Amino acid sequence: MNAPKLLSTPGADAYAYPLLIRHLLANVADQSEAEIVSGDRRLTYRDFVDRVTRLATLLAARGVRAGDTVAVMDWDSHRYLECYFAIPMMGAILQTVNVRLSPDQIAFTLRQSGATFLLHHADFAPLCAQLLPDLPQIGGVIVMEGQGNGYEALISTTPSDFAFADFDENAIATTFHTTGTTGDPKQVFFSHRQLVLHTITLAATLANQPDGQGLRRTNVYMPMTPMFHVHAWGMPYAATMLGVKQVYPGRYDPAALLALKRREGADFSHCVPTILRMLLDANVASGESLSPWTVVIGGAPLPVALAQEADAAGIATLVGYGMSETGPIITLARGTDRDVAGRCRAGFPAILVQARIDTDHGGELLLRAPWLTQGYATQPDSDALWADGWMHTGDVGAVDPDGALRIVDRLKDVIKTGGEWVSSIDLEDLLVAQPGIAEAAVVGMPDAKWGERPVAFLVAGQGAQPPQPDQLCAALQQHVASGRISRYAIPERLLTLEALPRTSVGKIDKKALRAMLA
To answer: Is the pLDDT of residue 181 over 70?
Structure first.
């Protein structure tokens, strides 16, 4: 077979145009009249681009050079958004620090990333004072809020004269650590090329959604996923490239989020199911409709009952699927207003995504896309992640006749009992649909006779009485009779908790639940 023909040699003055994060800002200052709202600040996009340049000038004056890693610890704000751009644009590497990790884990991530400079909110000053003596490689610190020599004072007095240059698009732009429930966090990396392709794909995928389920220039974007978590799902890059109005809420308080949504007209957000639950509970007192508000749900399965409750309150929910290693967008659900269950599936693969189900190895979902991380900081883990040239997600998937992907369960969470596989996700969805149950989590408990038996942990709804086990089992028996679940799926035990244990990014910590059983 002949090799494909390549382009002829370009002219001496031809511009190669590398895919760099700075090019996402190419036209936005001239074309967008929207604002970026954060705390008491309202910035035009021209203000924002100017401040990005000032931040790069400031960091360069403090000794930051291309290839250095700059760590950031802040709440969701205009400052964080400026770091999203200025740090990688100057050729340095942005490390988004998960501030919900333990102090030891935060120190581990700062040490492993090789961070040499730190920007942190004043709220984290006591923590940083504790950690920095043992992190001698961090040679410079700027406090994000504070009087005198704080971030805002420094930005206002720094000239806007940094000269951004082109460099290899494969240069690392960002790094952060995954938040699994076992072992130390794993460090992943993303290049400029990967993030630009992810941003364009995310914007195009959202533009291809039905009316009321996507993002347009006229929308008002408000994140409700921390900016330290997988680039806030990539949305700040996409929203900035599109020049939409952006509203940054700082710390997440349900009442404050609802007030900000109403005041600023926010109508596009994203969050985990826990935040959605908190918003709905906080809105009960007013009873006001929250429409229009499209909220993409990720990080954990979205129970149909919770999606129906959100619809009734005026929030149109749809699921997006991804992982830390995928940057994260892989799929996005879509459907009619009445097709709530359809919008609770993982959804349809995004543009450029290849997905297949490995039926030879438990139905694991395997992926290819041009923005997936190429590995971890430790090579053995990278080899397992990319075995046979496909990214291994650790999720069991299935494809519906219309081409939409469903996540059946995590490989490690599928329960083998009585010779049959039981999906913890399906069982959790059925439990949450019962009256009085706000949240449910199901894990497998070792059993000498059956191999494993399902155990359900339940959280009662706001103001509801704890559910009665016999009533729940009777309700689940109806699904056995209809063929929805196996008779082996009826839980061995039903335990009520005040709250479910969670990881630092809001996912249910099933390792902790198994430890409770042990």
So the answer is: no
